[in-house]
């Protein structure tokens, strides 16, 4: 499980150093994918394969499912971290997530999220307010 919020920066070549505590699980390869929240999801290769299997289970006759799968897979990019734990985020995904320099890298269960720092702070502030005002945990 990936946990925690980490502040990082994007270098001039579009690279970010992964948090040390995430590197071992991502060292064998990872997949970047667009998130619906305008951040980048980073999956270990095996977790990405599980996610794709889940999406394959949705009937192809469902137009929304086809569109989701197309955007998700077309935006996906495989990467292997270098010896320093750096990964290069493709320009298309950097533009999609509005990544410039200051980033927040979050653990999000079986994946990692990469956010523009100010976008994350706005999202987090609103989500924390909603979280604090829940009457009871939601049910799944």
Automatic annotation (TrEMBL):
UniProt keyword annotation of Transcription regulation present: yes
NCBIfam families: division/cell wall cluster transcriptional repressor MraZ (TIGR00242)
Chief place where the protein resides: cytoplasm
InterPro entries: MraZ, MraZ_C, MraZ_dom, MraZ_N, MraZ_sf, SpoVT-AbrB_dom, SpoVT-AbrB_sf
Subunit architecture: Forms oligomers.
Matching Pfam families: MraZ
GO biological process: negative regulation of DNA-templated transcription initiation
GO cellular component: cytoplasm; nucleoid
Organism: Egicoccus halophilus
Keywords assigned by UniProt, alphabetized: Cytoplasm, DNA-binding, Repeat, Transcription, Transcription regulation
Name by which UniProt lists this protein: Transcriptional regulator MraZ
Keyword match Transport: no
SpoVT-AbrB domain ranges (all copies): 5-47, 76-119
Family: Belongs to the MraZ family.
Top-level lineage group: Bacteria
Molecular functions (GO terms): DNA-binding transcription factor activity; transcription cis-regulatory region binding
Subcellular location: Cytoplasm, Nucleoid
């Amino acid at each position: 499980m990936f946990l925690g919020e980490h502040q990082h920066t994007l270098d001039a070549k579009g690279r970010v150093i992964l948090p040390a505590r995430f590197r071992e699980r991502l060292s064998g390869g990872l997949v970047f994918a667009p998130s619906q929240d305008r951040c980048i999801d980073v999956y270990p290769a095996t977790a990405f394969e599980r996610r794709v299997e889940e999406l394959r289970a949705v009937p192809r006759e469902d137009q929304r499912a086809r569109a989701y799968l197309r955007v998700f897979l077309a935006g996906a990019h495989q990467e292997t971290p270098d010896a320093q734990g750096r990964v290069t985020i493709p320009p298309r995904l950097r533009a999609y997530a509005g990544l410039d320099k200051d980033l927040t890298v979050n653990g999000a269960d079986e994946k990692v999220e990469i956010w523009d720092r100010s976008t994350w702070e706005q999202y987090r502030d609103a989500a924390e307010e909603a979280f604090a005002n829940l009457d009871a945990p939601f049910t799944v």
